[in-house]
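Let us practice reading a record.
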Amino acid sequence: MDTDPDSQTLLAQQFEEYRPHLRAVAVRMLGSTGEADDAVQEAWLRLSRSETDDVVNLGGWLTTVVGRVCLDMLRSRTSRRESPAELPEIAVDERGPGHPEHEAVLADTVGAALLVVLETLAPAERLAFVLHDLFAVPFDEVAAILGRTPVATRQLASRARRRVRSPGVTLADERTAQRRVVDAFLAASRSGDFTALLDLLHPDAALRADRAAVTMGAEPEVVGAAAVAETFRGRARGARPVDLDGFAAALWSVGGDPRVVFGFTVEDGRIREVELLADPEVLAQLDLTAASGPTPRR
């Protein structure tokens, strides 16, 4: 870290330029002005302790940091936070797109109604939706924060978008419906029922694996319902149901240590994507729970 006073002063000035934008991101993520201020302050502390000489896009770097801080805060919540009515009222800004303060004002005009819906989203869905749909952060950058593939992150945002557009569909209803499909898929996989697998898969279904899973023998990508069904036929015997970000998934462990997580994206009652995650660093960051409580991660 550069301890030169002039450099620190310049860094602080640059940070203040981005503060309105960062606070707007945090407010949309957390629904709480107090927690948003805490998240922004944590971003400053991390910036002041980091080497930033090689950072080309400081605004993007700071947005990523705030996103990760907010994600951790959402996952560790134990109670409701401030109500939407406590959010500040901000007038319309005349500055053009791309200006940090303009983006901050734009985000704060989203309103309390949307914030109520955002409160019903799982943390990963909320982050994907807020960063991409409200702040135009590319999916590959959001994916890096979540430890997911860009395709899976796009599906998280899509799922959140559907909930925002149809708030009458409760989170519990959607989770129950998704769990029913995933459980049926795992049962068909174990029994080797190819026809049942095919019926549960979207025609354009895809299986994608991260590098660690490929090293373990998985194909990096399998596309098409028939090919995915064939890949899973007679398998998944050692996988047990878990929840990933609050939605149905599966976990394969060896000696109690998680080795592979199977994430599922379900659309209209069929599985659109299966994602295999085996990178130990990624597994350690996932919000992974069993039906009866937390799942051991190590």
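A brief commentary: Residues 79-109, 292-298 have pLDDT under 50 and may be disordered.
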